[in-house]
Amino acid sequence: MEHRRLGSTGMYVSEITYGNWITHGSQVEAEAAIKCVKEAFNQGITSYDTADVYAGTKAESVLGKALKGYRREGYELFTKVYWPTGAGKNDRGLSRKHIIESCNASLKRLKTDYIDLYQAHRFDYETPLEETLSAFDDLIRQGKVHYIGFSEWNAEQIAAALKIQDAKGYNRFVSSQPQYSMLWRVIEAAVIPLSEKEGIGQIVWSPIGQGVLTGKYLPGKKAPAGSRATDKKGGADMISRFMNDQVLTAVQKLIPIAKKVDLTPAQLAIAWVLQNPNVSSAIIGATKPTQIKENVKASGVKLDPSIMSEIDQAIGGIAEKDPSKTISPKPRA
Question: Of 38, 98, 299, 333, which sees the most CB atoms within 10 A?
């Protein structure tokens, strides 16, 4: 397992991050989740990503249990705040009240004294940005959080935050967690150039396009039983944008390219995002340990420019590149 610095910070993260978005507490029960986390450690993964909202807060609890017994200094723990975690009007968003309360609740569920990276899960149009940034800064000064970042913010929102942080002397954002894959490249036009300039690293989610880039979904065929496309707990909604014959036909062209470099299509997809020097880590999920053993093989892979060109020829024309697709709910959902 290779490691990279998170942006311009001194903290290293594993090139592959283990994430438990729609698995722990949802698709995967505690016993299976513990096996997956154990395998992740066995494969050299040191970075673990979750969020308070995943599986209605259950995902954090399951991850906290799975991490028990591992040396706390030996891994990097990421979580997030923004989406509703309760029925109350203040159980959501990026107000000082919710950020502080959510952080304290996450610490309890994760059974830890601190969070390595705490992230704003979306941009909050209803809370003054300075209030949000002040609360994050206080958490760092209190020792509850080491670094801060955001997920799915556009370039204008990032720039506005950095301006306030610099003016007020607050700790700066060091990470961005966007969706990024061969199929979804909306951060390339504006977010990545700004991030490179400001020392912000990308920890990207869905590098395999919610599983579409594995090649297992075939044009004109029903999705395999038990796959994410059939998961009514959340997976099917997210993958639906890619479940059309134009995309699925193009993805099939990646299979011979992957074979040429002795990789599976999933490994090729993960390796592709890691070719971007602004990417610090790629998040993978798993419902079984064998998936982790296979996908970590993408770490350290260097793809020849000719292979990158072949991938673009096969799939570049259907990739979404519109930067306006980076959207937060307005007003807050």
Answer: 98
Q: Domain residues of the chain, as ranges?
A: 3-325
87-141 confidence digits (pLDDT tens) = 999 999 999 999 999 999 999 999 999 999 999 999 999 999 999 999 999 999 9
Q: How many CB atoms lie within 10 A of CB 207?
A: 27
Write down the residue that tokens 């029903």 correspond to.
222
Q: How far apart are CA 110 and CA 78, in angstroms?
A: 10
Contacts of 54 (CB under 8 A, 6+ apart): 20, 21, 22, 24, 25, 26, 60
| 209, HSE (Cβ side, Cα atoms, 13 Å) | 28
C-beta pairs of 239-244 under 8 Å, 24+ apart in sequence: 239/209, 239/210, 239/211, 239/212, 242/183, 242/209, 242/210, 242/212, 243/212, 243/217
d(CA 54, CA 24): 8
Residue 171 contacts residue 198 (beta carbons within 8 Å)? no
CATH topology of domain 3-325: TIM Barrel (3.20.20)
Which of these is catalytic: 18, 54, 118, 217? 54
Asked whether the predicted pLDDT for residue 163 surpasses 80, the reply is yes
Sign, Cα dihedral of 311, 204, 240, 34: positive
**Under a CB-based contact definition with an 8 Å cutoff, are residues 25 and 59 in contact?**
yes
pLDDT tens column, 2-29: 999 999 999 999 999 999 876 555 555 6
Residue 54: active-site member:
yes
CA 318, CA 27: separation in Å to the nearest integer? 30
**3-state DSSP of 68-87:** CCCCHHHCEEEEEECCCCCC
From residue 314, alpha-carbon distances to 167, 246, 319 in Å are 46, 12, 10
CB 311 within 8 A of CB 182: yes
Supply 47's token pair: 């970075």
